[in-house]
Amino acid sequence: MPFLSLKFNLQKRVKLAQGLWMLYWLAVIVGIILFSLGIFFKIELRKRSEIMDNNESHLVPNLLILVGMLSCGLNAFGGKLCHDSLDPQKFSKMKPMLRPYMLLCCGFNALLLLLVLLCFLMQFAVYLTLAEGLKNAIRFYKDTDTPGRCFMKRTLDMTQIEFRCCGNNNFRDWFEVQWISNRYLDMSNDVVKDRVLSNVEGKYLMDSVPFSCCNPGSPRPCIQHHLTNNSAHYDYDHRTEELNIWNRGCRQAVFSYYSGIMNSIGALLIFTMVLEAGDVAGLKYLSTALETMADPENPECESEGWLLEKGFKETLADLLSKVKTFGRANQVEEGRASPDVAAT
Amino acid sequence: MAVLKVKFTKTRRDKLAQILWILNWISVVTGIILFSLGLFLKVELKKREELMAEKDIQYVPNMLIAVGLIACAINFLGGKICYDCVDSTKFLRWKLIMLPYIVCTFFFTLCVLVGALMCYSMHWELEEALDLGLMQAMRFYKDTDMPGRCFLKHTVDTLQIQFQCCGNSGYKDWFQIQWISNRYLDMSKKEVVDRLRSNVEGKYLMDGVPFSCCNINSPRPCIQQQITNNSAHFNYEHQTEDQNLWMKGCRQALLEYYTHIMQSIGLTVLITWLFELSVLTGVRYLQTSLENVLRQGDPDSESDGWLLENSLMETARIIKSLGKSNQINTANNGDPNIDVPSTSKAHYGPDNVPPKEKMETS
Hints:
The structure holds two protein chains of two kinds. Chain A is mainly alpha-helical.
């Protein structure tokens, strides 16, 4: 009793081959899209690797690029198979390649499933790398004269402007860090000396933020310095003022950006999986329909196509027994080898 | 003496018709490209219309949009005509339309050329508009509580951040206007009142700039206030410091941006114009060769194709006399050299007695 069998006449077979050919080429286009998304994601990670401590994992974009290329190749071959299937000569040449090809497609689908899981799980890794990287970026903001860190200020300023955020969790992160280099502090000034001596580590801390935290949508000119001192500015209450500087933390802002990209990639991968499964099923139907033609010389005859030759449970049982005999065959051969040795 | 005569065999005519069909469809695509370029320019100009004074510069993108749409329509028709020209019987359908179509397309290509030239000439009007517009925008920077101007601060700030520029010609433009609203100035403080009184118009002027002028490439935290006062900051000399603020003026930055767009669009339009002209030449050759084939009667024979039947001077004369003969007599076939005696009886009016009868009576 074949599993999910359908009857095919010539017209239905031709229609199936044509429809399948179009589906395969659609899958090739989707493969190209996956490839370019992989490259885009890799570039986006590289662009901001400085605020991620140069530590970010490129596993997902690399796999995505590989999957895109594989998809293009496999599906182009599948399209060629469909195109040749209606010509009996070409089909008989291709018949031996069908089974390994379909197994390869199933393996590819498993790889797609793995990638979907990775897309959703790696977001945690991105979040942790971002948290650590931003903390260090804020610490090294002032080191514009240290080689290897001289562009940290520029990168962090650009990130805060682009993502409309300030600091790691919020703007108070800047209060805990000395973000003005000692080169620009007049150490002979009493105010400066007091501030440096006022904390254990000898850092020049103040309740100010860099200019990149300023919100252009604020109705008043940006207040960067003495943020928590209401009397330092006219008509200013720091507890109710929301439009002056960005309230969001950069970790949250940058993470939601990357999370959005990864979620979209995951959704596209799920769509690709469904498409691939449909392609394999269609190819199985087509190949069985062509193989079971009662009279190969007469193209007009009817035939039957199916997904599995026997029922679902029987196929599973067959597979299990095959796996068992494969294991046992090795043992039996060893046993046979020893009596030969004993005989001689 | 035809202008640029070329012999066409049947196969050459068919090939020409097929090639022209493909070229016409490519021209439809270039028409769509022109249309989208015009739309893009319109959107870019509209995005920053707050920063541009009331000058009529929208005519350039409007012209590009119109030209793009007309190009699509004309080339679509041209493609249909060329597709039918392979078959001489179908050509008869289009025979009468072809010459007016070619003349219309010729004038249309002139419009395309004018469009391309307009792209390059917009530069000066744009500069004036930007100069006035930016000055106004900076003056109203502080008016975030006035309806109609409340987003000008946001616009100017995002402009300066995005285009990496400061002020109209430079950062010193901000020293000459009051960019902090009186709502945020403590009028009870002596220094504020002094500053307000220090100039004729009672404006709070200072040598400070908004935060959006800050240069992100600067190695030190941004110095926005007391820019010209070297002693106000440690290790600072404003005459040599060029990385603290953006040095470029916003007018120049915007002008460069728009000029770059206009040059690319102008180049594309010029290339489109050359393409259209070549397609037009091909269609003219096709039309004349097919008409000659019909005149000869044998659809498979060779025929001549040309651009103009007579030389340029003759053609100019014919067109002039066409205009004149419309006033006098339309039966001359347009050639004033032929003397056609009037034989129609209808020309005799009530006073014109035929000479024969008169002689008999006298």
